[in-house]
Design brief:
single chain; mainly beta; Methylamine Dehydrogenase, Chain H; 2 domains; 5-stranded antiparallel sheet; 4-stranded antiparallel sheet; 1 helix; 29 strands; globular; N2O_reductase_N; WD40/YVTN_repeat-like_dom_sf; signal; WD40_rpt
């Protein structure tokens, strides 16, 4: 029985090639993974045993976005129902503080001593509307309040500013020099870049020519380009360092989570409706492999030693674990409650985080 698919080269050849290109980081600790469960708590997974060793109560409902500070001291979750974030002492699992953000907080990125959280004051909740061919998938968002990104100072434990995005802001990324925050705005099919210092809009890029509902966004490790997944375009869009669109590459249906590997040689895309984690050559964009997974798999993370990938699948209530070099399935961790996001400590490469 074939559990994973490779194209166009064999598993043996690919594994040998990657073993040479990606030497094992034997000195790196396996660490812990943290999974936000929308209908529950944050699960803690030991990455040596791949077993759940505990749960963290965020003392709120519907945690989705999740992030961890570089020093591993704090864990942050965005709680949809409470309109806030939970700031948690990672090692003890103790809640330090709830910080009010605004309606429908979703995506979390931590950079330095600040957390950036997207929230949607006008969000209606529920699944996204169905795409109407040729209609641009703009829905009724032109008359709605734009989404925003809350900026939280993790030393002061307070929200210090807000950056206005477009309607239904989704993914968050930073420019390599740390001066800009880039966000995907799925309702008006744009990627916008904003000054972190001033909050001002610097640039807007439309994705409509290539596909609708941009969601995930990642910068390449060398800073030369960005990749944006287009949920209704069944593709990802490659942008250069100045945000000029270069090309769209077909993927499976409804892609969301996206990440380069640590070396920038491969690109991973979670195609949720096709129940796949896909692998592309990050230079040629040739598809290398597909890993069948569960239902509504959106976000994933490498382990800190780069040996494994953990994929959170919300509607099948499980975490799928794969070998990061051969793409063979290793384990399903079941019993989750709508898992949404996953990060690790030590920090590793993934759709929600970067080391």
């Amino acid at each position: 029985m074939n559990f994973f698919r490779l194209a166009p080269i064999t598993a043996c050849l690919l594994a040998s090639t990657l073993a040479l290109a990606m030497p094992a980081r034997a000195d790196a600790p396996k660490g812990l993974a943290y999974v936000s469960n929308q209908d529950g708590e944050v699960s803690v997974i030991d990455l040596d045993s791949l077993e759940v060793t505990g749960n963290i109560d965020v003392e709120d409902k519907s945690p989705r976005g999740i992030g961890v500070t570089a020093d591993g001291r704090l864990l942050i979750t965005a709680n949809r129902d409470g309109g806030d974030i939970s700031v948690i002492e990672r090692t003890s699992g103790k809640l330090i503080k709830h910080i009010k953000i605004g309606k429908n907080p979703e995506f979390v990125r931590v950079r330095g001593d600040r957390a950036f959280i997207s929230f949607e004051p006008s969000a209606k909740g529920g699944p996204p509307p169905k795409e109407v061919p040729g209609a641009g998938a703009k829905d009724d968002d032109d008359d709605r309040e734009p989404a925003k990104i809350a900026v939280v100072d993790l030393k002061k434990l307070a929200m210090i500013s807000q950056i206005t995005g477009g309607p239904e802001t989704e993914g968050i990324e930073f420019s390599p020099d740390g001066k800009l925050i880039l966000v995907t705005n799925e309702a008006d099919n744009t990627v916008t870049a904003h000054s972190i210092a001033t909050g001002k809009l610097v640039k807007t890029v439309s994705t409509e020519k290539y596909g609708n509902r941009p969601r995930g966004i990642k910068v390449s490790p060398d800073g030369s380009r960005y990749v944006v997944t287009l949920e209704y375009g069944d593709s990802f869009l490659v942008l250069d360092k100045n945000l000029k669109p270069l090309k769209a590459v077909p993927t499976g249906k409804t892609p969301y989570g996206v990440s380069f590997d640590r070396e920038g040689k491969r690109l991973f895309v979670a195609a949720s409706k096709d129940k796949l984690l896909q692998v592309f050559d990050a230079q040629t964009y040739e598809k290398l492999a597909e890993m069948p997974a569960g239902d509504r798999c959106w976000h994933f993370s490498f382990t800190p030693d780069d040996s494994r990938i953990l994929l959170a699948c919300g509607r099948s209530n499980d975490i799928h674990v794969f070998d990061a070099r051969t793409y063979a399935p290793l384990k399903r961790i079941t019993g989750k409650n709508l898992p949404w996001g996953i990060v690790t400590y030590p920090k590793s490469v993934g759709s929600l985080d970067a080391p």
